[in-house]
Automatic annotation (TrEMBL):
SUPFAM superfamilies linked to this entry: Guanosine diphospho-D-mannose pyrophosphorylase/mannose-6-phosphate isomerase linker domain, Nucleotide-diphospho-sugar transferases
Protein's name according to its UniProt entry: Mannose-1-phosphate guanylyltransferase
Origin species: Haloarcula hispanica (strain ATCC 33960 / DSM 4426 / JCM 8911 / NBRC 102182 / NCIMB 2187 / VKM B-1755)
Class of enzymatic activity (EC top level): transferase
GO molecular function: mannose-1-phosphate guanylyltransferase (GDP) activity; mannose-1-phosphate guanylyltransferase (GTP) activity
Domain (MannoseP isomerase/GMP-like beta-helix): residue spans on this chain: 272-325
InterPro entries recorded: GMPP_N, ManC/GMP-like_b-helix, Mannose-6P_isomerase_type2, NTP_transferase_dom, Nucleotide-diphossugar_trans
Length: 331
């Protein structure tokens, strides 16, 4: 009998780099950018072909998830400790509930179009055939430093072994990887719960896996430090594979990404309403109205009575703002 495909949507991050649209009680996956539905709802709709869908999130987002994705089952994790502990925990819980299915793990905050179902089904098939950890590879169009980079081995039958996986390289290394034909890791994975848990058992997640087997979920989370699945497992995995995918894909990581997805108004990317005079190359995003005069290459983001202004090529520095706001719980 074919294994059921279980979609596991990760919705526990906050997406801080889209502050002030994203806030501690309004993470990126709950937002909609010019579409009718939230990124989370779009993700759950996109995996409508799966036999079951779970959304994994933190307790404080659970109600928001239920409202936005009522068709999915909600799993909450004892502590937000990044995607490594989250994915190991979910694999364990779902194996208890539905047996050794094939998990299709997806971020909840990406914008994707193209043959998603075909790619996802191929990844699921490869996960079962190889009993390995399957990633989806996107051809890069720039040396982005916020992604994982995958060097594929010889490809056969729609997939290739992963020769190396390097999470978030520096700029110079990313430039070399793009020249050498590496893929971006799309953050979309397929594996059986057993394959993931056995890889996790010889990784920094090992102390957690032992305690999950004992059934003590709080102790399992307490036993590990926050770490992403990419650093914890994928960089050292010996049985990882990549399915190259021709998807139109964007993770909307920070405000400069909107330049790639929005129609231009006189050379500016505008979300919401704006008047622009002698202004060029700006990203103007708001839930109200922005006017920009005689300025270039800025991000102006204004939501819920909070405004961020930053040079576009320093858009990542919003992290510094959020870290200061978090210190006194104003995020
Ligand atoms: N449940 C849960 N979900 C989480 C947690 N932390 C993050 N997530 C969710 O996991 C997804 C990915 O997390 P990010 O933190 O946004 O990852 P990233 O830095 O963008 O890097 C990952 O994605 C890139 C593609 O966008 C990859 O290129 C990279 O290798 C990596 O897999 C998002 O949907 C986020 O909401 C957590 O503690 N718990």
């Amino acid at each position: 009998m074919e294994r059921p495909i279980v979609a596991l949507v990760l919705a526990g991050g906050t997406g801080t780099r889209l502050y002030p649209a994203s806030r501690s009680d309004r993470p990126k996956q709950f937002l909609s950018f010019g579409e009718e539905e939230s990124l989370l709802a779009e993700t759950v709709n996109r995996v409508g072909f799966a036999d079951e869908t779970y959304v994994l999130t933190r307790e404080s987002f659970a109600d928001g998830v239920r409202t936005r994705a009522p068709s999915a089952a909600v799993l909450t994790e004892p502590e937000p400790k990044d995607t490594g502990p989250a994915l190991a925990y979910a694999a364990h819980r779902i194996r208890e509930q539905v047996g050794d299915c094939v998990l299709l793990c997806l971020p909840s905050d990406h914008r994707i179009s193209g043959p998603f179902e075909t790619v996802a089904r191929t990844a699921a098939r490869v996960a079962v055939e190889t009993e390995g950890l399957v990633t989806v590879g996107i051809e890069p169009d720039r040396p982005a430093t916020g992604y994982g980079y995958i060097k594929p081995g010889p490809s056969e039958n729609g997939f290739a072994p992963v020769e190396t996986f390097h999470e978030k390289p520096d700029r110079e290394t990313a430039e070399r990887y793009v020249r050498e034909g590496f893929y971006w890791n799309a953050g979309l994975f397929a594996w059986t719960p057993t394959a993931l848990l056995s890889a996790a058992a010889s990784s920094p997640l090992a102390p957690m896996v032992e305690r999950l087997d004992d059934g003590d979920h709080d102790a399992a989370f307490a036993a590990v430090d926050p770490v992403s699945i990419d650093y914890a497992v994928l960089e050292d995995a010996e049985n990882a594979f990549v399915v190259p995918a021709a998807l139109d894909w964007d993770d909307l990581g920070s405000w400069d990404a909107f330049e790639r997805i929005l129609d231009k108004q006189d050379g500016n990317a505008v979300l919401g309403e704006a008047v622009t005079i002698d202004a060029d190359g700006n990203v103007l995003a708001s839930d109200g109205h922005v006017s920009a005069v005689g300025v270039e290459d800025l991000v102006v983001a204004s939501f819920d009575n909070r405004t961020l202004v930053v040079p576009k090529d320093e858009a990542q520095r919003v992290r510094e703002v959020v870290s200061e706001l978090r210190d006194d719980e104003r995020f």
